[in-house]
């Protein structure tokens, strides 16, 4: 059972998200909060009472008292094991960049369909990063500084350490595919893909999937 917390200042939105999450019997809403500060307070109380913390938080962006981006930054510092999905009605790239920089695992618009939302919750809980397709490429572009030939060469040297299957997986990660999507594409088990991604992270010495994508883009700048 994946424990979910919903943080949004609009009660109808919280209710709607809770109903969507309830459609999946493996997901359970364990807490709700009206702003980032209340979310932090509830997490602190749970930790103090040695109660289980949520595995995934659905976080609104614009809220009074403390917004979702500030809350995400603070929560990830205190509880790095919690995955955070940013939900917003504003399809603006800067929210995605700021949220990812704060430690969020994903960025979705609030008009997301129930099945897609629940798949995203499972995905970030499994260690994936989730972005709307249009934002994925822009996140990568903004994450890559002006590339010099030496930088491109260093990036290629990192990928040269990978085996054939690892390179295939790295390429698909750079396209924004989740572990489940990669598994289907390569006809592998999701657990196998997860282990492969972990090996890639260790070998090329980056901390998350977004950085795999950034490095892949950097290594292939001359092919863009």
UniProtKB/TrEMBL annotation:
Keywords in alphabetical order: DNA-binding, Phosphoprotein, Transcription, Transcription regulation
A Pfam entry, by short name: GerE
4-aspartylphosphate, modified sites: 60
Residue span(s) of domain Response regulatory: 3-125
Gene3D superfamilies: 3.40.50.2300
Domain HTH luxR-type: 155-220
Protein name from the UniProt record: Response regulator transcription factor
Source organism (scientific name): Bifidobacterium polysaccharolyticum
Upper classification of the organism: Bacteria, Bacillati, Actinomycetota, Actinomycetes, Bifidobacteriales
């Amino acid at each position: 059972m994946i424990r979910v917390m919903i943080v949004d200042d609009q009660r109808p939105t919280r209710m709607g998200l809770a109903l969507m999450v309830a459609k999946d019997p493996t997901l359970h809403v364990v807490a709700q909060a009206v702003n980032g500060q209340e979310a932090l307070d509830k997490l602190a109380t749970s930790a103090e009472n040695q109660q289980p913390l949520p595995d995934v938080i659905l976080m609104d962006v614009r809220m009074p008292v403390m917004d979702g981006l500030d809350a995400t930054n603070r929560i990830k510092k205190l509880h790095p094991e919690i995955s955070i999905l940013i939900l917003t009605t504003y399809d603006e790239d800067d929210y995605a960049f700021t949220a990812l920089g704060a430690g969020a695992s994903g960025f979705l618009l609030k008009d997301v369909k129930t099945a897609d939302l629940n798949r995203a919750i499972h995905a970030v809980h499994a260690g994936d990063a989730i972005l709307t397709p249009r934002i994925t490429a822009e996140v990568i572009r903004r994450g890559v500084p002006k590339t010099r030939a030496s930088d491109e060469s260093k990036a290629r040297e990192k990928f040269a350490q990978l085996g054939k299957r690892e390179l295939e997986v790295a390429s698909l990660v750079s396209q924004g595919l989740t572990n489940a999507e990669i598994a289907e594409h390569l006809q592998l088990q999701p657990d196998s893909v997860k282990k492969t991604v972990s090996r890639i992270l260790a070998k090329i010495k980056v901390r998350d999937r977004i950085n795999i994508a950034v490095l892949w883009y950097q290594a292939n700048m001359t092919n863009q």
